[in-house]
């Protein structure tokens, strides 16, 4: 049999020599996990390298404006992903070296590896106001200046790009309506929002009527996507063979710098960073840092702000943390013990009559609030109760106390560990958890 408790962990056969070494403390399972993560990061890098090569070839060959702008955007996005992945790979190597040093210095001592839960974040309805001169906007005077713009959104190694939008003096706002969702995001995330702009030359402006260029994968750009995949696959054999020659021991391939290709070039126009404190169910305005001046060809008269909606959903608020059979009584009625099936999830410990009621969406018999103001403590085997117990005290408003009976010391330990981890997760994601709890619904609706 194999241990497959988590998909991100390495698979180790039970009773094998590797498992015995792990149990003896000579080998930590995290070393295997890091190795598997290294391979995954390298595969992602190789994929982005092939996409970059395909985009470079298409950019050099295409003659239509929409294809050239899309290919140049793909090139910039792939370069950003490669840089982020290479940075992550370097950090993982450094972390592995530090772990080996710690194991040698501590002689196999245990290290507290408690980590807060991750979650999802979504940003949507991005609106960047423009500030045109009166003579340009109202009187429609001067040369018609057009720029192709898009946003690059990054959290760690996860990078997304928005649709392309053609901007001229007839627009008052740059809008990116579609939501972008990031998964497996830690509470200390840093969401970078970067606005890139490219001046649309006169010869490309002829015959172009639509303001919004479709995203890769939509109906009007399937030909471009097919061309990109073909170019990428054609270059994959040569890139794989080069990487095999340069890394015979499975190390990360040497990345050659991208060749300079003629075509439209995007430049960073403005940027901002959003963190956990910016989470809110409503729209908020954030300051933009403008990176260039009016003399640049790709410049646009930005007002200096960006409006958007940023929401989050910590996993501790949606997933089941712990469940099992318990006996519970309230301090108000100490003789009334109730055998229930309890589920710890979100901000509640829900108690059902039986386990099947959780699947049939039955209303729980009663619910015990679990939040940052809740106190939980374990008691040794009580002679009066003849069992191990856990006390839950809520001090919000009128103080209430519940006593929980477990059947073994192992059950007590498991429930207490679940409570402490849950409190740790709520504390780390307190702002987004409070926003989600205070909203009218717990659904993640970007």
TrEMBL record:
InterPro entries: AHD (IPR012966), Cytokinesis/Rho-signaling (IPR051364), HR1_rho-bd (IPR011072), HR1_rpt_sf (IPR036274), PH-like_dom_sf (IPR011993), PH_domain (IPR001849)
REM-1 domain mapped to chain residues: 17-98
UniProt cross-references to Pfam families, sorted A to Z: Anillin (PF08174), PH (PF00169)
Superkingdom field: Eukaryota
GO biological process: actomyosin contractile ring assembly; mitotic cytokinesis; septin ring organization; signal transduction
Cellular component GO terms held in the UniProt record: actomyosin contractile ring
Keyword Transferase: no
SUPFAM superfamilies referenced in this protein's UniProt entry, alphabetically: HR1 repeat, PH domain-like
Keyword annotations from UniProtKB, A to Z: Coiled coil
Residue ranges annotated for the PH domain, each copy included: 319-424
Protein name: Rhotekin 2b
């Amino acid at each position: 049999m194999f241990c497959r408790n988590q998909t991100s962990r390495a698979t180790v056969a039970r009773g094998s020599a590797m498992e015995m070494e792990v149990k003896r403390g000579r080998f930590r399972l995290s070393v295997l996990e890091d190795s598997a993560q290294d391979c995954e990061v390298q595969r992602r890098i190789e994929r982005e390298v092939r996409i970059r090569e395909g985009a470079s070839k298409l950019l050099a060959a295409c003659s239509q404006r929409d294809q050239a702008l899309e290919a140049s955007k793909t090139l910039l996005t792939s370069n950003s992903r490669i840089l982020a992945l290479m940075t992550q790979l370097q950090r993982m190597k450094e972390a592995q070296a530090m772990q080996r040093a710690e194991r040698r210095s501590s002689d196999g001592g245990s290290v507290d590896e408690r980590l807060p839960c991750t979650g999802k974040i979504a940003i949507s309805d991005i609106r960047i106001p423009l500030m045109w001169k009166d003579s340009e906007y109202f009187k429609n005077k001067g040369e018609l200046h057009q720029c192709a713009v898009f946003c690059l959104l990054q959290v760690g190694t996860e990078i997304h790009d928005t649709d392309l939008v053609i901007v001229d003096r007839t627009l008052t706002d740059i809008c990116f309506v579609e939501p972008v969702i990031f998964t497996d995001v830690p509470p200390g995330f840093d969401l970078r929002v970067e606005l890139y702009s490219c001046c649309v030359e006169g010869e490309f402006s002829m015959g172009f009527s639509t303001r919004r260029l479709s995203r890769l994968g939509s109906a009007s750009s399937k030909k471009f996507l097919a061309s990109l995949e073909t170019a990428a696959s054609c270059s994959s054999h040569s890139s794989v063979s080069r990487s095999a020659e340069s890394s015979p021991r499975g190390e990360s391939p040497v990345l050659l710098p991208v060749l300079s290709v003629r075509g439209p070039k995007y430049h960073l126009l403005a940027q901002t960073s959003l963190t956990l404190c910016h989470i809110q169910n409503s729209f908020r305005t954030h300051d933009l840092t403008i990176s260039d001046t009016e003399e640049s060809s790709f410049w646009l008269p930005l007002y200096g702000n960006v409006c958007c909606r940023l929401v989050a959903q910590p996993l501790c608020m949606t997933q089941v943390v712990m469940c099992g059979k318990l006996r519970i009584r309230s301090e108000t009625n100490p003789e009334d013990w109730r055998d229930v099936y309890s589920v710890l999830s979100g901000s509640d410990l829900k108690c059902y009559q039986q386990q099947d009621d959780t699947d049939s969406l039955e209303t729980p018999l009663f619910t015990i609030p679990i939040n940052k103001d809740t106190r939980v403590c374990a008691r040794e085997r009580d002679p009066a109760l003849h069992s191990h117990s856990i006390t839950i005290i809520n001090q919000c408003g009128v103080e209430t106390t519940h006593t929980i009976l477990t059947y073994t010391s192992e059950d007590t330990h498991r429930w207490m560990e679940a409570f402490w981890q849950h409190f740790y997760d709520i504390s780390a994601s307190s702002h987004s958890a409070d926003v989600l709890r205070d909203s009218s619904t717990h659904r993640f609706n970007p």
